[in-house]
Amino acid sequence: MEDTQEKIQKSHADENDFTQGSILAKLLRFMLPVLGAQILQAMYGAVDILVVGRFGTTAGISGVSTGSSVVALVTFTITGLAMGITVLIGKYLGEKREDRIGKVIGGAVCFFAVLSVVLAAVMLIFARPLAVLMQAPEEAVELTAMYVRICGGGIFFIIAYNVISSIFRGLGNSRLPLIFVAIACAVNIIGDLLFVAVLDMNVAGAALATVMAQAVSVILSLVILKKQDLPFTVRREDICLNAEIGRFVKIGAPIAFQEVLTQLSFLALCAFINRLGLEQSSGYGVANKIVNFVMLIPGSLMQSMSAFVAQNVGAGKEKRAREALFTGMGVGMVLGVFTCIFVYFRGDLLAGIFSSDAAVVEQAALYLKGFAPEAVATAILFSLIGYFNGHGQTLFVMIQGLGQTFVVRLPMSYIMSSRPNASLTGIGLAAPCASAFGILLNVIYFGIYARKMKKERVE
Length: 459
Prior knowledge:
Blueprint: H1 2-15, H2 23-55, H3 58-94, H4 101-125, H5 127-133, H6 141-153, H7 155-170, H8 175-198, H9 202-227, H10 243-274, H11 278-294, H12 296-314, H13 318-345, H14 347-351, H15 358-371, H16 374-390, H17 394-418, H18 424-428, H19 430-458
Helix pairs in contact: 2-3, 2-8, 2-9, 2-12, 3-4, 3-6, 3-7, 3-9, 3-10, 3-12, 4-6, 4-7, 4-10, 5-6, 6-9, 7-9, 8-9, 10-17, 11-15, 12-13, 12-16, 13-16, 16-19, 17-19
């Protein structure tokens, strides 16, 4: 029996070891659960709107939509910071320095506990000003503030979920985060139906369901965590403000900062399009739902590449890290080409899932025609970003991301929206143009960084 258990543990360890074996097989095995988790998260965000739209009020839909945008901004920031944990743990695993992982997790517990208190205070105190800043309709301002306050009160669980998932991805295990988000998704659906449909709590019910889902997921994940045969231990003395905090924050902070500015730029883009009229605004809203799903593949590829490369960098296997980069590009481009063709030619079919208004569907399809090449461009771009994340070069990742946004995407979107007879196709085209600019920056830096590493090896 013990031999069987040891064999199972060894098999799991081999699966999570990215420094040996088939790159394609291991990358896909890790990436598919990450993709599944992102799909569930995208559905998770849609459930609140669907249930409130069916059983709540029109103002409630606006309240949930606007309030969830504020919560999403916080969540993206946390995800960016937590990426530092994923990369640092992967690096220590590759270096066979598992003793440092306990200190990383202990430091993360303290750092994110303090951060959750700060964020909870901000969201509770400034909920209404945030709702006004987001230009929520007058009848939905209080409902938006209520959603933000309730989620702010439970922000600890939202943060804890993202941190725990980042730890497992750093260990090379993407299956458990998929299980965690599946649990959260199921509990959220049950909670929405109970609080909104049965108890008629409208926006408050949707917010409570969100917090409850994250809380249940965190509790169950901690139970599962204790039962895992992990390659590290967390001692009581590890749970303190230690030097590892500075290391993972140095990696994660640029990613988090880029995410914040990127989300703010999308709000600006929405404002540009809103000037064109109600049909264009609604069409962009529908197209944006489709865009979110299109971007799931590149997003999961980037997360997977970051963890994969980090382990190999730690193990000193730079050649294998590069091979993983080109393998990821190949996988992403194959999927991206099919996605691009379908979105370009059948954008109307996809838009029709979300709206029955012919004018809205037409405008959504126009935007998607311009956006479609982004499915291919981001397959290349996000693979490169994942490669640099895995090397801890997140400052460059932040700089190139800001360059894409403020040098290409926003100026081009503004110009295209300001032209006579402006079309959403031209505005949609700003995204792949920005990504092309980002690819150019990444390729240039790839050459510079390769020469730098070669020079360091010689010295």
